[in-house]
What does this fold into?
Amino acid sequence: MQFLLINVCIITFCMMVHSCFSQDDGRIIFPTEEPETPALSEEEESEIPESVFIQMKDVHNASEFLNQFVLRDDQEVPQRAPASEDAQGVFGINSRRGLSAGEMVAQIAQFATCQPEQQVVKLDKPLSGGVFYWPPCIRVKRCGGCCTSKLLACSPVATSNVNITVLQVRYSRDHPNLFDSEGPRSISVEQHDRCSCGCKELPEHCTELQEYRQGECRCVCTNQKEADQCLGPERFWDGHDCMCKCRNPMECSTGLNFNLTSCRCEIQLISLNFRRRAARTGGADFRSMISADTATESNTELNLA
It folds into this structure.
């Protein structure tokens, strides 16, 4: 009996220790350790809205990004400082393991911001097939770099023309593989002076059934009620045409019409009703319908004449 009581006490003590120092997944956590935060699965992580990436379009470096979009350990919401100010504070999981703003900025790669940069541009070929320009391509400033959203494009907002001098030559008929010089020529080439990340889709791209949302850089359909009613595995909502469409449209045989609601070939109800009436009246109704259609076509032709 005494042995049984000792065993019960030992089991009870072990259960108390397990409940105090273990997590739900069974791992034991000692009092001196910090519990690890379990990583979120891909399903649990919230997707980043595209509008957030669009707001980053005027960020040019890591310091501006830290100032405007990254939480410091001593604040809940970042106080967006002017772009000219350097980032300050401690960034990281907590202040004990975090880095100062200066230390973090020094480690981050330089952002390939949208700006004019030297790029290779091919020169337009002369109109004459036997004439050639040397050099055939040059380097000139054109917009380059990336934007923070797939809905943005790096485009020029200010351009100018620069004159370059090339050598114009003509292919020699008397000496194969050689050219006759026609002297230097001046050619005008466009260069980009200022660049900016702007929306790819613009208000003029919207249709009559769409409205433009500047913060989202896209056209959205205004007939949302029709979109909500576009249900079923055979149909889908086309956001460009703003209409419900069938996934697998098909050609129907004679006497059948493709129904855009059911996405199937169905009997034409009008034709079926006429056939039933013609069967009952011996074809009189059908013949009168044909005569009426013929008379209508004749009147239409006379009016057009």
